[in-house]
Amino acid sequence: MINHPRRRRRRRHSHGHGHLIFLAAVLLSLGPSEPDIRTGYRVTVAIPPAYSPGYVGRAYLMGADGGAPPAFRVALSVEAGGGGGGGGAATRARWRSSSGTSGCGARGPDERIGWRTGTSGQAVERLQIQGTGNLVLVDASGRIKWQSFNFPTDVMLWGQRLSGATRLTSYPANSTSFYSFEIEQAKVALYLNHGGSKYSYWEFAPSLSRNITFVKLGTRGLELFNYKFKKIARITAPRSEPPRFLALDNQTGNMGLYYYSPGEGKFAASFLALNATCDLPMSCPPYGICTLSSACSCIRLTRKRDGTGLDCGDGISGGFCGAGSPAMEMIELDGVDSVIKDGPKRVNVSKEECTSLCSEDCDCAAALYSSYLRECYVYGIVIGIKQVNQGSGLSYLVKVPKGSRGRRGRSGLKRWVLVLVGVADGLILAAVIGGLVYYLIRKRRKRSSGGARNDS
């Protein structure tokens, strides 16, 4: 057993000083280890007596047999929560498999169970890591009683199968929102989850409206099957190397298929669901706009509130109603779209009705209106906004403190956005034109000097 304490940034939690994570990790190499663990085995990870933000303690238990890298190994990991303040209530964590529990569990110093597999009475004898990365509990006959493949987090491994109504989840740092990759009857989709709502930003559906029963990560990509176990569609990984895993990135929310390159000794993406920066739901912070040049432009208001201007990092999502809340109004932004969809929607409504729907809803932070389709999408967060060409028929309506629009109505905010977007794109255009002018002038001077030498 080897303990590896280290520090890293992670999602904040509001409860406790520490929590346990039992995990199987993909590594490029691994040292000697046992192929399986029998009942009665126990491993301990020490925890600092005082709370230490960002602390991670880890003990590696075992690894998959043989084979060239990459391979799998199993670890018990203890990570500090976001409680802070007092000293650490726990001093050590235990992982064990015993005949009394007939399974795996994580316990604190007072023997209180924090997690267990729920396999009591099923005659479990061994814990094994398979060549696919599946962590299993088996009985004396080798029958699987519990497996990690049934409890995915943000990764799906090669050969793994997920049934309908299953999802992968990942959590960006310092955010109350999280991403999910969900398997539904009619499609697989990526969602941004915020509060009680979820908004899609990418989806893939089989042709002919065929229903999905389960998906499997195979040699050529993510394969979709119906209830007759017949393949009906595939998200193809366009490389000869088979994908080793599917992952949902916890920073961008992008879903990708990844292969292993022996020459480079690392993983690389063979497929990404979204290839443009501005198509990612959180490419810019709240109240930010992703411009045509893939830069972020913050929505700043013409009037300050409480001495500070409303900036990208000073979002006001939520808290629009109730005592102490400022009076709010709706401001319209032209020439922008939202990459997140599938929020509460109203059809066959006017722009004025769409404005009223959001204005009167305490949970609504913004709305997107399409004059062509007469549809109104309502959002509880101002995120995923990107600049589009004029004439799209889209209007983005933002709820802001009353008086933010300035003297000229909505034109104050609209003008600011367009000016800032123009400056960002204009700088790039100026750099390109300046480089071209410099190249032409230099080329002309070379010609002039060459002509002078010839004349002499």
Summarize the structure.
The chain has 456 residues and is mainly beta.
Question: How would you describe what is shown here?
Answer:
By secondary structure, the chain is mainly β. It has helices at 351-359, 411-455, and strands spanning 6-7, 18-27, 36-38, 41-46, 55-63, 71-80, 92-98, 103-107, 113-116, 126-129, 135-138, 144-147, 155-157, 161-163, 167-170, 178-183, 188-194, 197-204, 214-217, 221-225, 231-236, 245-248, 255-261, 266-272, 288-290, 296-298, 328-334, 336-338, 345-347, 366-370, 375-379, 385-387, 394-401. Strands 27-33-30-31-29 form a five-stranded antiparallel beta sheet, sandwiched between helices. A four-stranded antiparallel beta sheet has the order 1-5-6-2, with no helix packed on it. Strands 3-10-11-12 form a four-stranded antiparallel beta sheet, with no helix packed on it. A hairpin with a 2-residue loop joins strand 17 (188-194) and strand 18. The protein is globular. The termini are far apart.
Low-confidence stretches: 1-32, 84-101, 302-310, 406-424, 452-456
Strand content: 35-45%
Radius of gyration: 28 Å
* Helix percent band: 10-25%
Shape: globular
Major sheet details: 5 strands, antiparallel
Number of strand segments: 33
Global structural class = mainly beta
> What is the terminal separation in angstroms?
83 Å
Helix segment count?
2
Q: Mean of the pLDDT scores?
A: 77
Largest sheet, order of strands side by side? 27-33-30-31-29
